[in-house]
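Possible regression after last week's pipeline update?

I re-ran a chain I had predicted before the update to compare outputs. Posting the input and the new output here so someone can diff against the archived version. Not blocking, just want to make sure nothing changed silently.
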Amino acid sequence: MQAKESRATSYTTLAPGPAFRHEIEVKRSRFITVLRRAGTEEQARELVAELRREFHDARHHCSAFLVGPDRDVQRSSDDGEPSGTAGIPMLEALAKRETAPGVADLSDVSAVVVRYFGGILLGAGGLVRAYSESVSAALAEVRLVRRSRLRICAAEVPHLAAGRLENDLRAAGFAMAETSYRSQAAVLRLALPDDAAAIAAAAERVRALTAGATDLSPKGTEWVDAALP
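New output (post-update):
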């Protein structure tokens, strides 16, 4: 069965790379937050398993994660803390994180908070605040990127015309994916917004630049990272 296409065309996620770590202390308890990008539920759970092995002597390994452009996979675990005092506050910190004014679209992120008990009971309210603040503090420092679903369209042109056409398209503001070279022609790939009007405008520009000799052909979609403005 074919996977359902996402309704979202863009969202915010963590920059690729190793897990990000941040630690706070609350009444002698250590709360070590680890954030890592996770594109699947399996990847999100792998982080929990890895940290259980690394911090095997810690009392709690609480977790929360959001997965998918539509954030349709959301899970959390209190891992032995009183019900509702750890996993849910962590998940809410992820889900409500504003990536732009009025926009909360963070996804594909797994968060684990490792707690070393410091000997002082925090109470239910104290635990909720500690776990929420631990994740929020980490999110405030981690590097984020914008992930957009772009439509890849190809234009096949003679080798001698490829360089000039690519330069003209870049100058016109179009994002270019990797160009490939075949024996008879070069294939330029444009990364366009997944929008009919944008694709039509690009096709019109390509025809104008090639005197009507070249059309764009669709080549599917790709999710592409870009730095936040």
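Follow-up from reviewer: compared with the archived run. The two ends are 38 Å apart (CA to CA). Marking as no regression found.
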